[in-house]
Amino acid sequence: MKGSMKYIICIWLFMPLAIFAQDQEKEQEQKPQEPVKIKLEEKQILRKGNDLFKQKRFVDAEVKYKKALKENPYYETAGYNLGNAMYEQNRFEEALPQYELVAKSTGDNDTRERSFHNIGNVMMKQKQYDKAIASYKNSLLLNPKDEETRYNLALAQKLLKDQEQNDQNKDQNQDKDQDKDKDQDKDQDQNSENKDQKQDQGDDEKKDQDQNEGENENENKDQDQKDNEQNEGDKKEQQKQPQPDQLSQQQIQQLLEAMNNEENKTQQKVNAKKAKGKKLNQEKDW
Questions:
Q1: Residue 80 · residue 111 · CB < 8 Å
Q2: What is the pTM of this model?
Q3: Residue 31 has pLDDT above 70, yes or no
Q4: Which site among 71, 79, 195, 223 is 20 to 30 Å from 122 CA-CA?
Q5: How confident is the model at residue 99, as a pLDDT?
């Protein structure tokens, strides 16, 4: 976009302009029907503002335009140029009502055409391309031969189309993201369900395992108890039945008797041997 601004430097205007203040807006509603003549002092202030504007001293120019409006609230050229000074300072929201007031109040088509053009420029800055298109069209209705406005209109239409396409793509991507999120949520739910099933199955298996271990443990305890009982029985039986290296009381008694008998026999043999070897004494000591 060329970003062109249209400026009014004419001196005499015939329709009043309301300023932004409420009291000035009321004056706008009560504007006189007769054309208002601009005084020389007011024109001089406006000229000083225009000189400052050409020097790009937009803040100082703004002061002059406001002063001119203070002297004459119906000085619509000062109001239009005040909008231009604000625009150059990137204060678009403040410049817009200045242009709108001039476009509504002025009876001069050239002034209205420039106001609509600059309203379109403000809307372009704010990326409100649909409103910019409407403003440029209004400007072209008043001046169909204005190539700057025609160029800006074509640019605004292209930017609006691109914006709508981007919004559409954004919505599609957002829908895809939402579908993706839904699929992910579904997968997570399925995984969670499978996990729960596995967990339940694992719990059942663990329960069965614990039950089997419990049964095995009980069986082992029963078997251990039986083995202990069997061992106790064997132990008692062993206590009843003498071991190979142990003798019962009766056997001991029998063994002792046998030993005594054997000892007696041995003693008899010894005695027998002694008698047989002894010489008989046939002499008597009598």
A1: yes
A2: 0.54
A3: no
A4: 71
A5: 96
